[in-house]
Design goal:
The chain is of the alpha/beta class. It contains 16 helices and 15 strands.
Length: 443
């Protein structure tokens, strides 16, 4: 497949917009398609709703070169050599797939398809979904049959904050409906992105790769969080323990315990383990580690709020008369993404205890934050922390690295809760000299 092929990307959310812009700057002629006219209008002006580093510049380059168009008109997919589906695939509370967006995208695409097209599903789905749901829906348009087009699953593996670099470097996993589909998908990604490709034997293997990655990550973080709680019993710094534990070789690498934190959020780690659990249950298999990790990580916001309440009480300050300034609202450092952010649970628990909570995050949209938290963030750091009894750093953005805690107008003494900053011991010692009581997760 030549690099100057035509590509249609269906779904222009975080993943889809990164893929569309990248493929366009790599030489493909790309049509980005989404049902949200407001999103399409924003992207047409080169405006991204995410704070992904480099995305706005990449969008601007692609638009200026005339290699990227964005539209709500699905009919443009008929001219594409390759169609990439990157719509949202949330799950219900029981872990089952909410397939509304995926089903709608396939039904809209089916009448536009023509023989010879390559369809790539990027959206994370339970194993078997591409074969049992996507394929029949695509064949329902009347113009296609199973032998007329190629179909492959190729999971997205992007991390917020490094998505464009990930696209340029990470191996691409592909698993096709048949050998020809796998080969076509592998050839496309090799030429389009010039990255390594990891072909799988079937659609289901590629689907499971993505689930396995996030299942492992979530469970590993759960281990780190419970290790942090365990270390706290003995007043041991969990980061020292993790650093030492990770020094032992194991398998092809080393022990690799990840970092504890205020909790896990975002659209992947909070749902993919439940996909595993529900898919297995539907086949009579009881998976235990996936829900175990989810329950541990879901409990971290309340645990974090409990640290604040206990420390304030121990210092003689009743929580119902205390002010807590929360710095960083997103689920991850250096993003403005509030999807499933664990900070919401912390704020809810603190407010339930009677504390006055103020919010500050320079990366999030104020109106969106108010919808999520029920509290309008304050526009300035000093305003947020004025006379605060606790400053809780729950997402450590780059902008927070230069905070001069000595000059903040907080109440003294003031509790500093480290939910995701991982301050080094030298900084902690300095903070104590400046009138702060430091507590971290397992520190």
């Amino acid at each position: 497949m030549p690099l100057n092929c035509t590509v249609a990307v269906i779904g222009l959310g975080y993943v889809g917009s990164c893929i569309a812009a990248t493929l366009a700057t790599r030489g493909a002629q790309v049509s980005g398609i989404d049902v949200d006219p407001g999103l399409v209008s924003d992207l047409a002006r080169g405006e991204s709703r995410s704070h992904e580093p480099g995305l706005r510049e990449t969008l601007a380059e692609a638009l200026a070169a005339g290699r990227l168009e964005v539209t709500t008109d699905i009919s443009v997919a008929a001219a594409a050599d390759v169609v990439v589906i990157a719509v949202g695939t949330p799950v219900r509370d029981d872990g089952s797939l909410v397939d509304d967006q995926l089903r709608a995208a396939c039904l809209a695409l089916a009448p536009q398809m023509r023989a010879g097209q390559l369809v790539l599903l990027k959206s994370t789905v339970p194993a078997g979904t591409t074969r049992s749901l996507v394929r029949p829906l695509l064949e329902s348009g009347g113009r296609t049959a199973g032998v007329d087009f190629s179909l492959a699953f190729t999971p997205e593996r992007l991390a917020e904050g490094t998505a464009l670099a990930d696209l340029a470097t990470l191996p691409i996993v592909v698993g096709g409906l048949d050998e020809a589909s796998t080969r076509a998908a592998a050839d496309f990604w090799r030429q389009a992105l010039d990255v390594a490709v990891l072909p799988q034997d079937c659609l289901e293997a590629a689907e499971i790769v993505k689930l396995a990655d996030n299942w492992w990550i979530d469970l590993n973080i759960a281990l780190a969080n419970e290790l942090a709680k365990f270390c706290a019993l003995y007043q041991v710094d969990v980061l020292d323990v993790i650093s030492a534990a990770n020094s032992i070789p194991k398998g092809n690498g080393s022990v690799n315990i990840l970092m504890p934190s205020v909790g896990v959020g975002g659209s992947c780690l909070t749902k993919d383990p439940w996909m595993v659990w529900m898919s297995a249950r539907q086949h009579g298999l009881d998976i235990r580690t996936a829900p175990a990790g989810r329950h541990v990580n879901d409990g971290m916001p309340e645990y974090t709020a409990g640290i604040v309440i206990d420390e304030l009480t121990a210092a003689g300050r009743a929580p119902e008369t205390a002010t807590v300034a929360v710095l960083g609202l997103a689920f991850k450092n250096d993003t403005g993404d509030l999807r499933a952010t664990p900070v919401r649970g912390v704020v809810t628990a603190l407010a339930k205890a009677g504390a006055q909570v103020r919010l500050y995050d320079p990366l999030v949209d104020g109106a969106q934050a108010e919808r999520v938290f029920g509290i309008r963030p304050t526009p300035a750091l000093d305003e947020a922390v004025r006379d605060a009894d606790c400053v809780a750093v729950l997402a450590f953005h780059r902008e927070f690295a230069d905070i001069d805690f000595a000059t903040l107008p907080v109440a003294r003494p003031c509790l500093l809760l480290d939910g995701r900053a991982y301050y080094p011991k030298e900084t902690i010692d300095m903070l104590r000299v400046q009138g702060y009581r430091y507590r971290g997760i397992g520190r």
